[in-house]
Specification:
There is one protein chain. The chain has nine helices and seven strands. With 306 residues, it is α+β, with helices and mostly antiparallel strands. It has a seven-stranded mixed beta sheet. Strand 4 and strand 5 form a beta hairpin. Helix 6 (161-192) packs antiparallel against helix 7 (204-266). It is rod-shaped and about 120 Å long.
Length: 306
């Protein structure tokens, strides 16, 4: 797919791209790139391995910038990342992608964007913005979910799945932070504009993008800290619950220990035990046992163990 950057991203042919004075955007498969790369005079030998892309990064060359994009699937972070390569110079940018992900992003810009001052820098700003446009909503969604967990724990009604879910959110947020760090390095390289591919007044777009990344990165770190807090709060709740159970067991044991002693004492098979011959011995032992239970309960309640 071939586009020229005008007031909108305008679809065109390969020959129009080669002969135009406008900057261009091109999406090619790896096979098409191998066949056509000499037509675009990138200036270096660049043959990316599209199956081996794990990070978003850029490399500054003498007369081009080459690199890769690796975008996590934010609907399910466990899915495979969306990845593709690119080569950029003052004439335009070429995306090398066998999955069609880059082309979808470019088509979205072609349908939805119209520029008063079209440029490659403005296109790159809109292209990069698509990677993070819904991230604030995602972060807020995680924040509300964690708040509900925290309230449930404070109200003594946590679920067993809370700890696992908090760890899942923490893992997702870690992937987001890594993604932002990679995009930040990429945006800084574009803002520095060492090769002069962008007009100096247009580098402000990259500063706007970097400021947005700063905000998202700070919000993500807050959510990461909140997941740790939720996990610790849940663990504290479990410890308190276990301590309460141990306290109850200790109280029960303490109550029945003297009763067990009495039962064991009068269960001995001695011939001469005067209490056994007394007609009131049995009710006396029952009363003593009952008093032991009552006094023990009163003592434990006074000590706030019950």
């Amino acid at each position: 797919m071939y586009y020229i950057i005008k007031e909108t991203l305008t679809k065109c042919t390969k020959s129009e791209v080669i002969n135009t004075k406008h900057q261009y955007v091109i999406c090619l498969t790896s096979e098409e790139w191998i066949e056509q790369k000499d037509s675009f005079d990138i200036g270096i030998e660049f043959d990316p391995n599209l199956s081996d892309i794990y990070v978003t990064q850029a490399e500054l060359n003498y007369d081009s910038i080459t690199g890769t994009f690796c975008i996590p699937d934010k609907s399910n972070f466990s899915k495979k990342d969306k990845s593709f390569a690119f080569a950029l110079d003052e004439k335009g940018i070429i995306f090398i992608d066998d999955s069609g992900n880059a082309e979808k992003l470019v088509k979205t810009i072609a349908k939805t964007k119209r520029w008063r001052f079209p440029s490659l820098a403005r296109f790159m700003y809109d292209f990069l913005n698509q990677f993070v446009q819904n991230d604030l909503s995602l972060i807020k969604k995680y924040e509300r979910e964690l708040d509900r967990m925290e309230n449930a724990i404070e109200n003594n009604s946590p679920e067993e799945a809370f700890s696992k879910r908090a760890n899942e959110i923490r893992s997702d947020i870690r992937d987001l932070i890594d993604h932002y760090e990679e995009l930040y390095d990429f945006g800084q390289l574009l803002e520095e504009n060492e090769n002069g591919f962008f007009k100096p007044e247009n580098t402000r777009y990259f500063r706007l993008f970097l400021d947005k990344l700063d905000s998202l990165r700070d919000a993500s770190k807050s959510i990461r800290d909140l997941t740790i807090q939720i996990r610790d709060l849940y663990k504290t709740h479990l410890d308190i619950k276990q301590n309460h159970i141990m306290t109850v067991l200790t109280v029960i044991t303490s109550i029945f220990m003297p009763l067990t002693l009495i039962v064991g004492w009068y269960g001995m098979n001695f011939q001469y035990m005067p209490e056994l011959a007394s007609p009131i011995a049995y009710p006396i032992v029952m009363i003593v046992c009952l008093l032991i239970v009552i006094l023990s309960l009163l003592y434990f309640k006074k000590k706030k163990w019950l």
